[in-house]
Amino acid sequence: MREALLPKSVSVYREGYSVSRLQADALAGLTVAIVALPLSMAIAIASGVTPDRGLYTAIIGGFFVSLLGGSRHQIGGPAGAFIVLVAATVSRHGIDGLLLATAMSGVLLALAGFFRLGDYIKFIPYPVTVGFTAGIAVIIFSSQISELLGLQLTGPEPGPLLEKLPALANSLTTISPAAAGIASLTILTILAIRHYRPHWPGLLIAVISASLAAALLELPVPTIGTKFGGIPSSLPVPTLPDLSLQLAIAVLPDAIAFALLGAIESLLSAVVADGMTGRRHRSNTELVAQGVANIASALFGGICVTGTIARTATNVRAGATSPVSGMLHAVFLLAFMLIAAPLASYIPLAALAGVLAVVSWNMIERPAIAALIRTSRAETVILAVTFLLVVFRDLTEGILVGFALASVQFIHQMASRLQVASRETERPVDGSDAETIVYRLDGAFFFGAVATATAVLDRIGDQHRNLVLDCSGIVFIDASGINALAGVVRSAARHGTRVYIVSSRPDLHAMLLHHEISDATARFEPDMQSAMRTIATRRKAA
C-alpha cells in the first residue's frame, strides 16, 4: 500500500504499541463514548430517524474511521452538520433512500481519496467554513424549539426557516411547562458542569439528571420510549440498501451533498486535531476511511458518518495517543447499548433537545466571526452571504456561492498586486526618444491580471528601437498571461522594435515557444545585465 494512503493505525503498530499507551487510549475512548452516547441519539432524532440509528452510526462508522483513517485522534460518528441534509433526504426518499445515499456518498468519498482530491478539498476558504457552520447551528436550534418548549403543532413542522417560525409562533399557546423545565434543567446542568467541573461528562450527567427528574416527578413529557419504543439491545444484521437504479438516480444529489460536507467536516476536524497535537494527518487516507465508514454504516442501518470536531477535541484532551482510542470508543458505545438499552427509554426528548441547543450554540465560532468583521470587509460579506444562504436557501448552495465569492475576491487581490513598471534608458544627446524602454512585471500574471497589464503594455509604439520585458519578478503565469505576453511581442515586432525577454525560468521560454515566439522574434536573456550587454553590442555593430 502506498504510504500516502496508509492508515495511521498501521503506522502506530509499526512504531510499537505498549500497555501504557493502551491504558491511556482506553481512558480516552471511554471519555469520548460517554460524550457520544446522548449526542448520537439526539442527532439521529433531530435528523428524522430513530435514536438507535445514531448509535449504529457511532459504533460502526466510528470504528472504521479510526481503524482506516489518516488521523491519530479523529473520532467519527453522526454530526450535527448533517441534520438538515439527512432530514431532507428522509422526507423526500424515506429510510431506504437515506441508506442508499449514505452508501453512495461512501463510494464517492473513497474515490476522492484514491484520486488524491483531499489535497484540494482543504482549500475551502475560512470565512465560508465559519459562515456555513454558523448557519447550520441556527437551523439545528430552530429544529429543536418545538421539543424544547413541548409545543403541539397542528400539522407537520415545516422545514424551511421562514415557514417554520410562523408555525412555531402560532403554537406558543400549547407550550408545556414540564418540557420547558426539563430542557432548561439540561442546559443549566451542562453549563454549570462546564464552568465548575470541566473534566466531568456534562452531557451525560445532564441527560441522566433530566431523566431522573422526569421519572421521579412523573412529568408528562415525551420520552424515547413513548415516541420510539426504546432502542434495541444489539446491532442489526447487515443488509444491503435498496439498489434500484431509479432510486439511485433520485438520491444522487443527496449523496453528492453528503460526500462534499463529509469531506469538508472530516478534514477540518483532522486539521483541528493536528493543531492540538502537532501531528499531521493524511487527507486522502482520511477520505478513504470516511468512505468505508459510510458504506459500513449504511449496511447496519446507520446514517452519515464524518469526523466530529467536538468529540475529536475531547479525545485529544482526554490523553489519546493513537486511533485505538477511537476504536475503543465504538466498543464502549456497543457495550453501553447492550447493557443499558432499556434505560434509554426514560430519556426525555426535551433533554436531548437541550443537548442539541448547547451543541448548536457551541458551533457558532463567535471569536472567529468577530475577528473577520474587524479585519476584512470583503471576507465579512463572504461570511454573511454563506450564512444567509445556508439558513434561508440550501447548505450546498451556501458553500458553492461562498466559495465562488472567495475565489473572485482572491482573483481581484492577486490581479491588483501585479505591478507593471517602465523606465527609459539610453536617451540620445539630441533629446530624441530613448532607444530602449524597459517594462518590469512583478507578481502573478494570470487571467485576472491580463487586462491591467495589457492596458500598460499596449501603449508601446514604434518610437523605441528596443523593448525589454523584465519577467524575472513574475511568480506565476498561466495560459492567459502567456498569450498576452506573446501578443505584446508580436505587436512590438510589427513596429520594428527588437524585443528582449529577461527570465531565468525555462518553463516561460518553453510556453512562449509553443505560442510561436521563437528566438528570431524575441531574444531570451537570463538577467538584465546580459540584456543590456546584448543591446550595447548590437548598437556598436550597427
Keywords, separated by commas or semicolons:
7 strands; 542 residues; alpha/beta; Transcription Regulator spoIIAA; two-stranded antiparallel ribbon; five-stranded mixed β-sheet; 22 helices
Question: What features would you describe in this structure?
Answer:
By secondary structure, the protein is an alpha/beta fold. It is built from 22 helices and 7 strands. The protein folds into 2 domains: 30-341 and 350-406, no CATH class; 419-541, STAS domain (Transcription Regulator spoIIAA, 2-Layer Sandwich). Helices cover 65% and strands 8% of the residues. β6, α21 (506-514) and β7 (522-525) form a beta-alpha-beta unit. α8 packs antiparallel against α9. The N and C termini lie far apart (66 Å). Residues 428-432 have low confidence and may be disordered.
Concise description?
This protein has 542 residues and is an alpha/beta fold. It contains 22 helices and seven strands.
* Average pLDDT metric: 88
Helix content: 55-70%
Question: Structural class of the secondary elements?
Answer: alpha/beta
What Rg is obtained from the alpha carbons, in whole angstroms?
Answer: 30 Å
Anisotropy-based shape: elongated
- Beta fraction: 5-15%
Put simply, the count of helices is 22
From N to C, what is the helix and strand string?
HHHEHHHHHHHHHEHHHHHHEEHEHEHEH
Domain STAS: 437-535
Keywords: Membrane, Transmembrane, Transmembrane helix
Subcellular location: Membrane
Protein name: SulP family inorganic anion transporter
